[in-house]
## 1
Amino acid sequence: MAAAMETEQFPCVLTIQVPFPTARLASVALQSLQVDKELSPLVRRIFTITPSGSDAGAGANATPDQHKTLQVEYRATTNRMLRVAVNSFMESLNLVIEVMEHLDADVLAAEAHSS
Amino acid sequence: MAPLYALGCEGSANKLGIGVVSHDPATNKTRILSNVRHTFNSPPGTGFLPKDTAAHHRAHFVSVAREALKTAGLTSPKDLSCICYTRGPGMGAPLTSTAIGARTLALLWGLDMVGVNHCVGHIEMGRVITGADNPVVLYVSGGNTQVIAYAEQRYRIFGETLDIAVGNCIDRFARTLNIPNDPFPGYNVEQLAKKAFFEEDGVTKREPVLLDLPYAVKGMDCSFSGILGAADLLAAQMRKQDALLASGGTLKEGEERITPQDLCFTLQETVYAMLVEITERAMAHVGSKQVLVVGGVGCNERLQAMMGLMARDRGGSVYATDERFCIDNGIMIGLAGLLAWETGFRTPFEDSTCTQRFRTDDVHISWRSD
């Protein structure tokens, strides 16, 4: 019943799947991004981490190491609200990935070693 | 015990600042290892909008953070004790963008997060740089105007603006006159105000004209929006004069010719006199002879000079810093955060959000016991 209400009030849905190279990075992205609450009451979102690609078939039997995909399901009252929320998410996601690429401890260590 | 290190990330307004600071709890010595800043400047006549400012901070976060680490020369980020970020007050979107970057760093490096009150950051930085141990603090910037004194582990607000911040008043007047925002509007207003004094070979040829502006001190508080409105009206009158003179007309008898220089001079003299007045009253209440000026407007030399005259009359002195520490930066956040961390303060990860409103006196100053 509650689920039906949700679908009725928030009919515009978009699910984004972001595969990461490791389970650790997927978890970092999830924790970084889910802290800030969605600003609009017209938008709902659910963050999960799922097994990715070839591991997806493992389903509930997937090992923690296989949980490498960040999945975000956005639901909004209108397409406009959905677009605004998803755009904002993408901008934040971009920053998180950039930080991972250039500032992770192993990246810095490798640079220090080569210079 | 070895010194502790912290990385501070500041992005509450149009400056993205990241820096590394160290503090030794045993000796209370503070050292600045790096202080990198990148400023978003909007074109003349416009202000910085939250959305564009947030995009700026996201675009420069990685390069500014990398430079801060490189300059600091830390061998590994694991040498840091914590990642400090500005929790508020400030603009929502720029604060959040910076917090997302800070959070990702803390997770990647396995470090604690410390959320810092921006105003407290300014105060602690000012105290360390100037050596003023227990001053009355005038905190003046584009977003805040407060007179503060410390008592029983809180920075107590004695007086504040009732509407806009003094820096906002000056910045917006700079927009009225179409003065560039680079390096920052207040600096350009200050330079123009200096030109109100016409000097040749060291002889003053013309005294600046102090035009008529309202003076709005209400008890310990100030108001700036009406002054801005009145200054804008004078600027409009000046443009009418420009048009009239350009078309070959003449001014009415006895009408003062208004110049941008006199306008800037008048605005500065008026608002700084107000700030000096409320600061002096706070010093009298508290019985303090030290006054510390922090925040972006605090690097204005005219304000420092006026404050200095008042403090000298009271047998005290003014403590101010230059633009490296006055203007928003990462190390002030790093320092205030590290002091809190040393007393056991942590911001739980799920609470590492931002807030646009965060009053100075909300923070428990656990690291001071005087």
## 2
Amino acid sequence: MMKTPTQSAWQALRNRRGFLHDVYTGLAGVGLTALLRQEGLADGPRTWEPGFGQTHHLPKASRVLQIFCPGAASHMDLWEHKPGLDQWHGKPLPGEEAFLSFQGKNGNLMRSPWPFVARGQSGKKISSMLPYMARHVDDIAFFHGMHSKTNTHGPGCVFMNTGHPTEGFPSTGAWMSYALGSANENLPTYVAIPDVRGEPPNGKANWSNGFLPARHQAILMSAQQPIRNLSRPGVVSASEEQRTRSLIEFLNQQHAEDRSGDSALQARMAAYELAARMQLSAPEVSDLSREPDSVRKLYGVGDSNTLKDGYAQNCILARRLLERGVRYVNLYCASRASGVDGLLNWDAHKTLKSDYERHCPIFDQPTAALLTDLKQRGMLDDTLVLWTTEFGRMPTHQEGTSGRDHNPDGFTCWMAGAGVKGGMSYGATDQFGRRAAINPTTVWDFYGTVLHLLGFDHERLSYYYNGFDRRLTDVHGGVVRDVLA
Amino acid sequence: MKHSLNQWLQKVTLHRLMPSSCRILPCVLLFGVTVHADESKLFLEKVAPILETHCLRCHYPGNEEGDVSLATPDDLRDGGYLDVRNGDQSHLLDLVEPVRAGKKPEMPEDGDPLSSEQVGVLRKWVVQGALWPEGKVLKEASQADASWWAFQALKEVSVPGVTKAPVSWKRNPVDAFIFEELQNQHLSPSVPTSRRQLIRRLCFDLTGLPPSVEQVKRFVGDPSPDAYEHLVDRLLASPHYGERWGRHWLDVIRFGESRGFERNEIIRNAWPFRDYVIRSFNQDKPLSRLIKEHLAGDQLGPNQPDVEIGTTFLVCGPYDDVGNQDPAQAAQIRANTIDEMIRASSEAFLGLTVGCARCHHHKFDPISQEDYYRWYATFAGVRHGSREIASNAEREQRKRMMEPLDAERNGLAKERERLEIVILKRAEMKKDLFAESWTRDPIKRTGVEERFEKRLAKYVRLIVEGTESNPYASSGYGIDEFEVWTPGKAGQNVASLALGGSAKGASRIAEDFVKAYSAQLTIDGEYGARWIARGSELSITLSRPTEIDRIYFSSDRGGDAGNQPVANFVSEYRLEVSSDGEQWEKVADSHDRQPVNEAHRKWRWMMMEQTSEERQQLKGLDLAIARLDRERKDVPELPRWWAGNFTGIEESTYVFIGGNPQRKGKEVVSASLSAFDTSFEGYRLDPGAAEGKRRLALANWLVSSENPLTPRVWVNRIWQKHFGQGLVSTPSDFGVMGSQPSHADLLDWLAGQLLDNGWRMKPLHKLLVMSQAYRQSSTFRADAARADADSRFLWRFPPRRLSAEEIRDSMLKVSGVLKLEMGGAGFKLYRYLQDNVATYQPLDHHGSETYRRGIYHHNARAAIVDLMTEFDCPDPAFPAPRRASTTTPLQALTLLNHSFTLDMAKALSNQLDQDSAGDEERWVTLAYSRSYGRNPTESELQKALAFKADLGGVLFCRALFNSNEFIHID
């Protein structure tokens, strides 16, 4: 057994209250905060400072699950019923007959290939392609009036994750890690779970720390892919590892003897101890065999569709991570643009029907099960669930195809859980789904609301970088109060 | 910094409250009646500041958001924002008041809503008649104006006399400045550090590498007083100096070797720029020259590769190359690309965030939106991409070699074409005859059925002889489902995965998701996703020999792809079966089907009509063309490098209102920043000025001897890298949001030195590292730390953790495996995958081809690289004027567990085995001196001997690499 924490390193920290603060903020992202608090060492500062688990106001949510369907999942084929499309099917889109979208010319208006059905007490109409998700409409607040700045996937995904359409800015999870620090010293604060089909458009920029310190970037893991470099090299035995760690500790103590004031050295010693704990905790959290069969079945684990099976496993992993104090999980269902539009993600340019008949069954049951499971465990009370995509699709079909082109002017995202009013729809696109028409909502409004639920004023949560106090919501955004419970 | 900001705010406010001339201004009541001047007090003192602070950001002349400018009363009046009769009902008030409690009012759209007090002021003003003094034009005040310290000319500074300083601190002017400030802060400097620590500090600082055991020994044992100076000179002359300081510069200018954004394709030919930077630093090229080459190398040295390559600077940032048919979006993307260049240039050279003036005037610094678009006009002709960079002689030579080959090839190609036409013409005469043999329906994408006499089979194969889109190709087609049926009504598809079938066939590769296009998709029972073939054969194996009589396959079973290329199908095929996998029997082919399209029909005609003589002739021509193509390929290509591509500028440049390219404001021309116009000579070019002249004018202006910012920013960067922190701690932001200099006089004095030295860096390096401030100990002193925790005033030399590159380079060097070869294409610590878009996968093992210095790593964007990423090597999405130095458990995991550490540990251990020849104490002593530059203490020695005896040398070395001492320097 390891001794945790090692007496020496902690003792050193205790003895150096004057410099505690440096170490403290230095390690906030890696979990020392919570540990120090447990030990009664840290009360945190009085005024709000990032990394101490403090918020601006009383939060409703203490963790976030963000499900991302990359490729621009069609709002009018999944979430927002547009009877106008049935009525006007085959006719040109009035006023935009010659509109050139991302891939060029468009044909006439095209109805959704699937009927919508009213579900739940709210009577919310939802695509019949999502029978499992339909059971949750009463828990969900739909944002039907979303609009984006860009019609390109990479910038769109990055915009949806960081509030900026160019890469290099911190993602929402990184902001949360920065703002709150860690809630579990043995696991990362922010985890991104990529799909078995690969990374989303613009890859790692979606879970980047941007200009925030590196510790705030997401740790990448999935049911198929453990955290990198987690286990010791195969040639090193457990006891050898133990003695190596003691030797490192000895070397560091010798070195620190005449450098007693330099907190960075102690911080690094503590980081080695935290790494050792992570080596124990992470395999446990990833071990899905610990889940009862009933749970695995609920999610669809073991489905003959291996893509669904893979996503279902990742959904369970997401819940297990959240349960154990991971603050932000960014879970992907689908991946990047491939050689064939709409093959690996929701980008149905050419053949909407057959594309979504592949994607919906992968997404539907596992996602719904995740909501059910969180609810049953009481976790939905303080877990904020977000469903996002980078933008919407055109109400017309793309010329010469039966698919839809990109449409940044109107799309749907939704929220459920902590502090969110369920069974409601906020905003709407016009009668065809072309543009956000009622209560148009920006990505910044969406995250202004998310931060509000997390206990933060989005205009005050900022970080200086090159000339500016940068924010997740840039210089925009508000709080959509209509969706607050 | 807060202090200065408050001072500023005070100044601005005072300025607003006491406009000396206002009292005598005649006023207009918006609706016609002239009033007395003192009635305008409310407007001038209360209303104007509200409008200036909260509204003018977006509503000013040249940037009339919503077509409203609030600089003058005209738009308020004309737009009906004020109600003449019922002032209280004015629309202006509706806009700034919340519709209901808790809801954000419509205006200001960005930023905080007005306080109820402010709304009250507006209401009072409107009710009283909305007085606006005649001729009063409001202007949004940035927090700073041209009097901001950083915009002032360099001060003539004399070196302070420091009588109280120790003798050693009186020799170097730098020390005098430092000592004076220490005195002001009631701090005292530290004693000189030990030679052992000093050489380690200096070697890392100047070359990024640890000193060798011999170097340390020699220096520590050298009694001569100028031993240190000699060491400094040697290191500054070392080629590794350029590798170290070039890396710093590449950080600042966001040099990355992939395109970024969604496609993020790797850039394989940007490394010549990296080498150029290293070379330039090693040559101590004047920085003024370097800056000019970066911005306008093509103008300074056209056809001189070594000069033109400087322009890679312009295009080594990320940019969106996905392509967009939506013209508005395409214009936005282009504007973003130019914006990236403006930001990179202004931050790197001037330490100014000009990019913040894209949508409106800079909020803090005196940079107007017009200024931004003056730079936009400057970069408007720059495009990303590769181009040939060669001397005229090289171009001529290649042309001479290529011309005859091209001519011959074109002649043969024409001949071939003519022959084909002759054959096709003959065939057309017999078309009915040919068609007679095509008795069956053409192939359909939704499904092709072949029935045959039932027979036993275990293996079935489809052999493709042509595809729809290209009858000559037997690859590149798609199949979504392939079924093999047993006879009868209750027949089963025995090819299906569910019944134990398996499918094989070469496919398009997606290495990050191997199933993406695989042959398995043909038997998964799902339609829509297709096998994309990269070969002519699909082989199906049944679970056991089975009687079959029907095959059915398709590329678009659902039928929703129509004629789209995405479902490109086969045009010509054979189907064969076998029971043993050796003897094959054909059961069907497409030869009697009607052709699927015109190209297919012609292909058939060609095959059927050509005589054997013609066949020979065509074959001969094909061979000759192929031979010529090889020869053409063998002619050495001109170097194609990633560098600035320049196109003429057809269009005028306009201010984009609110940053939106669709909303053009006033026309602007390429010109210098207006805030400097009064302090030194700027420039303003003609609207039609040639593209290259614009960049050259900017470059000349930046390095004008009167431009105070460029030298200040440079010397500050140099200082920052030597002492861990800049005199201005925000090295790319000398504006209001940046920090104030800790030693303002020293900064200006050093900037003057840089100019006196002809913009050369090495004399400045020497000056700094020769100082006592640099040579003092880093030992912690609690009393001093209480006053100055991060040693900004240099009461000690600030210790630091090594950078990612230094850590990796050190591991390689102490293990004796570092390859010091310089330049050329970089190595990769990831696997590069490309399937439409790029993916960068980290590698579990790093081969010895990667044992080069970190600066030669091919730094792609959005690539996580083991060790480098964890130790804060920045993603070049943005400039990184400062490196973070974080501490995380992930660093521990990587350094402990990645195979690279173990490989290095083995190499070091082997090296020590050789050098110690069985002497265990010597082994440990050498391990310490190689890794830490010192000998072990007695207790360390004993501990090490015991550990090594039990666990071996490799694990001991692994522990050394993980220790704090290895990656921290004093």
## 3
Amino acid sequence: MSLPIAPKPAHRRFHQARWDEPVIFELSTPGERGVLVTAVEPGVRDTVGDVVATLPEGLARRTPPALPEMGQMRVLKHYLRLSQENLGADLNVDVGQGTCTMKYAPKVNEQLISTPKLSAMHPLQDPADAQGALEIIWRTERMLAEISGMEEVSLHTQGGSAAIWANIAMIRAYHEANGEGAQRREVITTIFSHPSNAAAAKAAGYDVITLHPDADGYPDLAALKRALSPRTAAIMVTNPEDTGIYNPAIREWVDAAHAVGALASYDQANANGILGITRARDAGFDVCHFNVHKTFGTPHGSGGPGTGANGVSAALAPFLPGPRVVRDGDRYRVEEGGPRSIGAIGPFHGVVPNIVRAYAWIMALGAEGLRAVAETAVLNNNYLMKRILEIPGASAPYATGRRRIEQVRYSWQELFEETGISSEEIGIRASDFGMHYWTSHHPYVVPQPFTLEPTESYSKAELDEYADVLAEVAREARETPEVVRTAPHNQTVHHTHHDDLDDPERWAITWRAYRRKYPDAVGA
Amino acid sequence: MSEPFVHPYIPNTAPEVRAEMLAAVGAASVEEFYADVPADLRLGRALDLPEPLVAEQDLARHVSGLLARNVPTTERLSFLGQGTYAHHVPAVVDEVIGRSEFLTAYAGEPYEDHGRFQALWQYQSLMGELLAMDVVNVPTYDGFQATGTALAMAGRMTGRRRVLVASDVLPAKLSKVRDYVRVHLDLETVPPVDGTADVAGITDRLGGDVAAVWIETPSRTGAVEHRLQAIADAAHAVGAILVVGTDPVGYGVLTPPAEQGADIVCGDIQSLGLHQWYGGAHGGFIAVHDDPRFVMEMPSRLFGLATTDVPGEVGFGDVAYDRTSFAHREEGKEWVGTAAALWGIAAGVHLALMGPQGMRDLGEVLLARTAYAQRALGAIPGIRLTDGAVHLREFAIDVAGAGLTASGVVDALRAEGIEPGVPAGEHELVVCVTELTSQRDIDRLAAAVTGLVAASAAEAAATLDTVATPEEHRA
Amino acid sequence: MIGLIVNPVAGIGGPAGLAGSDGADVQRRAGERGARSRAAGRAAAALAVVAASRPDEHVVTAAGPMGEDAVRAAGLRPIVVWHQRSPTSPTDTTDAARALADVGVELVLFAGGDGTARDVAAGLPSSAVALGIPAGVKMYSPAFAVGPSAAGALAAAWLDERGLPTAEREVLDVDEEQLRRARVEPRLFGTLRVPYRAGRTQARKAATPADEQAAVRLAARGAATRLRPGIRYLLGPGGTMAEVARELGVEKTPLGVDVVLDGRVVVAGASEQELLAEVAHGPARAVVSIIGGQGFLLGRGNQQLSARVVEAIGDDPVMVVAPEQKLIDLGGRPLLVDTGDAGVDARLAGFAHVVTGPSTTSIYPVHAPENEGAVHAP
């Protein structure tokens, strides 16, 4: 007599797994083994003797590393419990990591790469034995060339910021090849472009000029013109910027840069909303990069590995990092970079499993599919923006009343002034409902920020659920603020104290350091 | 679009939902959202891409078909190394990093992503034990980047420009590092002697303008540096920093560089539980002592232990977050981006499974097999080991005495299904053995090379009869 | 243990249109206009946040309207350690602050404005920690929380976590006579140690004081590396300029304009006439930072750098030095110049290259509010 089941409450009664799992070193039991290593054959031992005993003076390790000693299933169990204490994109409505493009990474792609035909390939094998890998790299590069409009594309770099480094390294090599390396010492960027552009330019030895937006949040062409000079090596800009605002004068920006002999570098980290709509080369850019792991659907791996794609015009092609995959008729071979190549950024051909995943992702969608990705990402974003702006205390600074592309940087400033509850606290409380967002936005231009990027992967119902959660937390901030302030309540761990993390005397970056600094806290 | 395009990856392509959402935002079509994109920048046509394979089965057949054209090292006898190594990957490692929760997470906070923080903090800690160092970063891209950053740190800390490169370094790695630091640092080579660093040569070149001495151990040819402490003492005497690039795979048996005076230890973790992936699975580590002068120069993220409101609960957070370029833009220490966290989790699981005894056993089997292979190949007439150093996993042979070239050996042995190594010069071949290379495998390589040497000798004898130049014949 | 001081006349000048509430005369006039202080209500609102999680908390305070009433209104228990005189005077606040510190109050909340902050700072030892509940007319000092609830939240966190990290904040105030004549020249009257909350996530980064300090130092270093020999640099007032002087290893007058040539101070605390004389000796350049929250470069707080001085310097007369965050904090509003000379202002308007670090600058718009029309010169 208990059926039917009662209707669900308005908000999900979520609780994250809480295994209260110790640090792995505390699980060690002397003598247990997790995996055994193949033995040295008697024939080998007879020939070479005791290789450890005969090591030169000082070369043999005196005390073994204090790694834990655990049976195999205990290691497995420990890490599976940790995995349950982690909220991957496959489980939540992962729209809260704006700029990160947390989209669905299709499971079929995981199956496709899980073969020794890929995982057991060595990069220096006979190219005749690697035709499948080489063809996929080549084909993916050509598809990205079409998507960006650029002449050549390289998938050599291992992430977005590595690709940005490759961009500035190519720009530097280009000006040096033209005898203008010493003259062109400045790189111009905007404050809403990804900070890695400024950081990479600085690491490459450039002076960096930052432009602030105009009063409505649009990039300021007059400011750019004031900044450009014969000293300018390049402009390095993101478009749409992290505000979700597309710079309508982007062609004028590129032309203005070219007019002083500078190059234009396009950070396409935010390309998800413009696939098949508009292309980097068509706006005149000389170099661009994609974050392949964002836009082209590879899993983010808890923070990598990612994959970068560098696209260049014909003039910049000789500077691409090496090695390159080249097609000869229906065969593929590897060519080391030429004399003007900036050389290797990392080993070999980049993050090959991600390249195969991205290839499969594009092939599953095609031209029409990519356009549907872009349009749906933008529709989702504008829909979510409408829902968020209905929440009292939330706002979307800049470009008031206008549409955005694929993400919006919102602000809880009004709610903060009213309740003293910060954006960070709201984000933590949202995790009690199985949602989250991040607040590590720098520079800190928008006060009490949160950036939502719904991508194409989430259904309307999921977007509604996400907005409902934020509305509920905003209500709590007004009515029961201590519930928000003391969150999380339904998470793996409670309110965490971060005061030791900035103190060199107290921080503990490894178990080894913890044992040394807090000897009384650790059982001998 | 003649009929609505509905794709399984894109739920809101369903026509009714799409219409409902457009109505909710008061837009007639998605075109309205692109009002800021000027008409002359609009593509105005469909992208020219291959026909999609929208049915999963068709996609799988296509991609698997392409991959089927690969012949992996499991179907060849491979002695290839030079940056990517074939080691056994325990099944538990792949199980853990294949979990959706880890695989598809990204950058959540220490609450909802507690597991990621703990797994990566444990990676730092496990590496710290192996390397005998108190601070290890969340992985950067690869060993190339780790080394470039380590040297850049040394430059920032000392304010000096000169770096003495005292080991044989992989050419691609040296190229990357040189281009990465060239604005701030000048690399100078101090040629090694008999495989390892020339301590006297280093001492001669050291001065108050040297930022760092860079040692690679194992070197490009697998030579293990055995005078680190002397090099460290000499470097420290002039205020220079000792940067040691290494592969951590041997430290179950070998003395870690930190115990011999290294200030920064860096390298790649691919050997610790990662498949070869056609060279696509690398992660870089940077380890330093627990000294804020070093720690504050590290660009990567560092996770640290924290307490929570509940006694006994283990919490985590970012140590000294404001070091990163997220916080200071160009004033930051290089940059932080998506790098190689999942590989770090894998390496951590690997070390936890191996334990101290496993790492010791592995180190011993690598040293033993390397020595065995050196003897087996070095015993072949005309084949010479290039140096007398202790080698781990890799070593170089010179085949000139047998009238062979390195690429000639490679070409000939590939025909027998053997990848004998990587040519590093006309006559130098770098051979790699791991725990996956059995005694029988090594014997097979030695036999094949012996056969080649014999054939070459016979050919040379025949050539003498006809008074032709050997070059023409081999061409 | 936390304490509370309420300035019962804080803010009564504001609604009365009197631009501040200092002075018995202003207070009397405000009273005549029916003004009532909102300080007590806002203090109670802050304490209500504390009461929500710690209903039994005791608060050390002054009697009646100077705190006790607000503590009771919030439902908490007052411990009265000081009784005010009547009518109130600035020394009441100072004496009450001293009394709270004497009994070991760790965090002094005070409700009022800049004048209250000045008086509290005068009564507290330098080690004491205080936090303003904004309730005054003028709040130029960065010693105030963003609102009463935010102040209460910080106080609650202070109690929960048995202390919080603190940062030294400036106590600024303006001469109200000038304010009533619409000239804002905030002056530095001291400092207070203010608590802040490091975040609890990886986002612990909403400009911590350590960051701010580092950013100021970077900007100052950027200025120092750009100075050239043989040029007289006219260093304006302000914290960033003090840091520039520190980078150069010279003494700086906190509120004056000092002339530096080849690493030496040539004239300290120079008048306009002295500056003109210095500029006449050879090439010169003014080095200024952003004064106050309004974004003034010239014309507020550094009137010695007059239109005549700027004119005399010639081309590219001003180097602007500021950490990026100071530009961001302007919230999109332009930098301002008001030298009193329309021609000079027009020349300065447009965009400034703001030095933010040794190898970084920002391009930021400069307006001349007294001279609109010259704004946004192409």
